[in-house]
Amino acid sequence: xxxxxxxxxxxxxxxxxxxxxxxxxxxxxxxxxxxxxxxxxxxxxxxxxxxxxxxxxxxxxxxxxxxxxxxxxxxxxxxxx
Length: 81
Fold this sequence. Notes:
Layout (H helix, E strand, L loop, with lengths): L3 E4 L8 E4 L2 E4 L3 E4 L30 E4 L15
Parallel strand pairs: 1-5
Antiparallel strand pairs: 2-3, 3-4
């Protein structure tokens, strides 16, 4: 399933793709969503003190908030230093 998207204002937004548990923004920044998962259920804990196991991340529960770009610049148009 796809992530929830909130568009805060009008205008062009940064392009992104969803690949498994990763969100890749304009091929420049990738966020591993499952790394930041907060759902660590106690019911996964077995007797004997073993650590609980996280449920697989449901990407439909992930929310991405996007703002419009005032001066969009393509990665290929950036000046070299």
